[in-house]
Predict the structure.
Amino acid sequence: NAGVMQNPRHLVRRRGQEARLRCSPMKGHSHVYWYRQLPEEGLKFMVYLQKENIIDESGMPKERFSAEFPKEGPSILRIQQVVRGDSAAYFCASSRNTNEQFFGPGTRLTVL
Amino acid sequence: AQKITQTQPGMFVQEKEAVTLDCTYDTSDPSYGLFWYKQPSSGEMIFLIYQGSYDQQNATEGRYSLNFQKARKSANLVISASQLGDSAMYFCAMRVPDSNYQLIWGAGTKLIIKP
C-alpha cells in the first residue's frame, strides 16, 4: 500500500508564475489536509478537503491560493502569481476518517 | 484558542542518554489528540506516537514514550537510549474536533545527538 504521494518534490517558479502542487492520498483515504511550513517553523494548516468538497479553508490566504480534490485524481493546491513569500515546504496529509494523518514527503517551492 | 508550545528550540544530547522534549498545549475541548512527529534533514514528516485525551495510560512505541500529564496540559516526548539517527527536528501537534480535525503544531525542537 503506497503512502501519500506528492509531486513534484521540488518546484522552482519565478515571481508571477503559477505553481500547481499535487497530492495523491493513500488508498482508501478520502480526507486530505494541506499544510505549509515556512523555514525554521512548524506546520500551519491551510485547507481540509474531502472528495469534491472543501470542508475547511480557514488557513488559506484569501487571494491567489485555491485547492481542490476532484472525484477522480489527486488533490491540487494551486498558487497563482507566486511571490517570494510563498517559498516554503507544502505538505499534504491524508486520513481514512478523522484519525491519524499520514504525511507525504512534501513539495519544496522556491520562488525566484 | 488552541495552542501548542515547545519551549526548547534546540538540544544537544550525548548518544545513549535519554532525552525529554517538552510540549505543553492549551485547549478547552475535552476531547483531543496529541502527536509527535520527527522531521529529519531530508524533510519528510514521520509519525512517532499518539496520545488521546481519554487514554488512561501513557503511549509507548519502542524507544518513544509520551509523558502525558493532563492536569498540567503537558505531553513530553521521551526518547530512551538516544542514537545518532535521532538527530532531527521534533514537532508536537494537537488535533481537536472543533478545528475540523486539523493539526495544530508547535514550533519544533532541534535535537542533535553527539557521538
